[in-house]
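User: Please predict the structure of the protein below. I'd like the answer in structure-token form so I can feed it into my own downstream comparison script.

Assistant: Understood. Taking the following sequence of 147 residues as input:
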Amino acid sequence: MTRKQKRLITIGTLGVVLAVAVGMILYALSGQISFFYSPSQAKEAALASGTSFRLGGLVKDGSWKKTGEESDFIVTDGETELSVHYVGLLPDLFREGQGIVADGTLGADGVFAANRVLAKHDENYMPKEVVEELKARGEWQRDGAGS
């Protein structure tokens, strides 16, 4: 075998090892990827029940109902609303009219079953996509003034 053939075999072997390693990493991460949707985007995407994703928007005023540790509320982006069911303690900053991000799955009944809810005090901590969408619809106001 010549030096050129040995070099080609070494390069080919390294390429195969690299491709296998990248494939294994992508496969391992596939279960951890969680896409972000606003209620309108979730409706447009026609997500199947059991689909895991992040939902972001504002908690609709007058929609929060709490029974023990169970909470039901509606998340809206000003155009579309999505019902959310959460079992557990909500963050201290959670309230109606507040921006939230929830991780969970969409149920067969169309209700989003959240397994984690995050609430922050202003848009600086909200995902950029939610703020942009709310501003585009004219729904977002900061400190009582228009954006």
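That's the full token string. The first strand starts at residue 35 and ends at 37.
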